[in-house]
Each structure stands twice: as structure tokens, then as C-alpha cells.
Amino acid sequence: MSDRPKPSDCTDMASLRRLIDRLDDELFDLFAERMACIHRAAVLKEGEGLPANVPSRVTEVIENAKRRAAERSLDPALYGEIWRSIVDAAIAEEEKHLGAEKH
């Protein structure tokens, strides 16, 4: 259970902004952990002879993001676009690794 306050616990803008900043920090920690997974994926894909871009997996990840967004009453189209950007960046990162190994 998180010891972080809820938005309804914030009684002024300063405390709400602190909460938002804390959430942003947590999100970036998770993005960094996700990128570590992407780096590991590049190593594993290289060993298995897989390309960085696996279209069926890209579709699955983006559809999962849209579903997760909808389950939380968030805009699926918006979060689908955000996830598309995240996935595109991940593929580019994997391609850098896979391309570097060939030279």
C-alpha cells in the first residue's frame, strides 16, 4: 500500500503540485525500468535472431494500452498514441543495439 496522499487529500495547489511531481517521478522510474527491459529484449532478440520490430507484438502492446486506459476511464485513443510513441522509441533503441552488433 502506498503512503502517497490521494488527490482528495490535497487541500491547496501547492500540495497537489507536490503530489503531481511525485507521481511524475514514479512514472519516470517505471519508464527507466521499462527501458532496461527493452535493452534486455535487444540482447535476447539478437540471440534468437528476432528483429527489433515485430508488428504483431506492436499491435498487441498498443491494444493492451488502449484497453488499460479504458478500464481506468482514460481516453484510449490518447493513450494509444502515447504508447505508439513509447513503442516506436523502444524499437529504435533495439535497432541501435542490433545494428551496432553487426558492425
How would you describe this structure to a colleague?
- The protein has 103 residues and is mainly alpha-helical.
- The protein has one domain (7-102): Chorismate mutase (Chorismate Mutase Domain, subunit A, Up-down Bundle), CATH 1.20.59.10.
- It has three helices and no strands.
- It has helices spanning 13-48, 55-71, 76-102.
Specify the helix fraction band. over 70%
Structural class: mainly alpha
What is the element string, with H for helices and E for strands?
A: HHH
CATH fold type: Chorismate Mutase Domain, subunit A
Q: Give the averaged pLDDT, no decimals.
A: 94
Shape descriptor reads: elongated
Give the amount of beta strand, in percent.
under 5%
Number of helices: 3
- Which second-level CATH architecture applies? Up-down Bundle
Measure the end-to-end span: 48 Å
Tally of DSSP β-strands: 0
Tell me, what is the CATH class? Answer: Mainly Alpha
Largest sheet: none
- Give start-end ranges of low-pLDDT stretches: none
- Kindly provide the radius of gyration, computed on alpha-carbon positions and rounded to a whole number of angstroms: 18 Å
How would you name the CATH homologous superfamily?
Chorismate mutase
Any idea how many domains?
1
